[in-house]
Known about the structure:
2 copies of one chain form a homodimer. Chain A is an alpha/beta fold. In chain A, 44% of the residues lie in helices and 16% in strands.
Amino acid sequence: MITSRRTVFFISDGTAITAETLGHSLLTQFDHIIFDQITLPFIDNMEKASHVVKQINLEAERTGAPPIVFSTLIDPEIRRTIMGSRGRVYDLFEAFLVDLERDLSVESSQIVGRYHTVVNSNDYDVRIDAVNFALGNDDGISTKNYDRADIVLIGVSRAGKTPTCIYLGLQFGIYAANYPLTEEDLFGRYDELPDALLPFRKKLFGLTINPERLHRIRSQRRPNSRYASLAQCQSEIAAAESIFLANQIPFINITSMSVEEIAAKVLHENKLERRLL
Amino acid sequence: MITSRRTVFFISDGTAITAETLGHSLLTQFDHIIFDQITLPFIDNMEKASHVVKQINLEAERTGAPPIVFSTLIDPEIRRTIMGSRGRVYDLFEAFLVDLERDLSVESSQIVGRYHTVVNSNDYDVRIDAVNFALGNDDGISTKNYDRADIVLIGVSRAGKTPTCIYLGLQFGIYAANYPLTEEDLFGRYDELPDALLPFRKKLFGLTINPERLHRIRSQRRPNSRYASLAQCQSEIAAAESIFLANQIPFINITSMSVEEIAAKVLHENKLERRLL
């Protein structure tokens, strides 16, 4: 039951991705409120800051309630300007930086937009290389690079393998390949792993999903096909899980998980060593 | 100049991605300190919490300095347990939740790991569909789906187009295609756009990069090739930028930007309407 709505601003001198991340974490704790969200990135001078204050104040007037503002503003002058608005401002640096300076016995350097700046171009290279690995080893295109893979995800078509592999590359610098279990793999030889995967069994990790959810996902792609039918989804999933169990391949059910969660679980359960911190 | 090092923990009942994001934002403000980072996700019961406290205390003893702890712990009992360790704990919910409850005049629901849970499976579908769009329309494979694209990134090979398109899909639900400017496009007809792109010129956005950086990136892929040579990089980039200018295609230089930053800039500069909030 929705009881009210409130305008929320995410404001930053950089991309505003951090402001959104922390704001979303907090807001998901509040049911029953609809949040109207406005993101304002790259607020890196006083002119832009003054404009933002006007926007917040107008919204306060329009809605009759002070907007909630999540911000990551390094520059103290810009931060104070936004805090002088009619919004209720939650700023990451305001909340933590003074204490952190005390705990670390140093002063921070207050460089605007620093977080997402490529200080280390090696990190950038690792990341791009890992994403390219995911793309080049997607969907069982080839197994010839599996010796370079940190992990090989297996599962039926549309069980979340591809986005998870890409995310593992982007976020953690993990080299992740994926192999889709085809009908031949699933129903050809009872409970046996495809030959191509045998040399890599220690790198295998299974993804499974509830048949109803898979049916819905596949139906969007190919409505009313045999591929998308609930019966087909049920039998493919049963066969896949049976292969996982028979071959002692660890697996997780991703039905109610986001891509981030699947990736974090894969990392955690396999004790993979990330290349990006 | 490095003056000290400190151990940092990122702790969460969920993926710990939020804890890392906020911690990294803060830590990049401190030069001269090396941070040894330990991420502990899925700390969702008291047994795990007690184990974490021991780990933090051992590290305090080993290093002779209290570790810095960034956490996102919803459960008050688990949170208090971690805060009772010898670390200096910065918890997102501890810092903000009470004030936010007051500002929103409600109590939060305190559901562990809520943030990344798929509440809305439509969001999941949009996200995956957008990522698949990026994959299916990568590298100029085909231009036939460009009418469905929100944006078409153009630039020379290895200028950051592919990861940006994927990130735009993952993070914002934006349908992004990309088209690499080949030698034929660049040097065939002076300053003209490739015919295939003409119908979509309003969706075009250019990425460019400094020649030295491109040279390094390409050299990793194909060392000592003509493709990777500095001269080739210089002439390709000059021709690409000339095409952008001659055809009034907006573009950015991504040399010192992270993938997140490029994606946020593309979103912002093109005023694209995101499908994921």
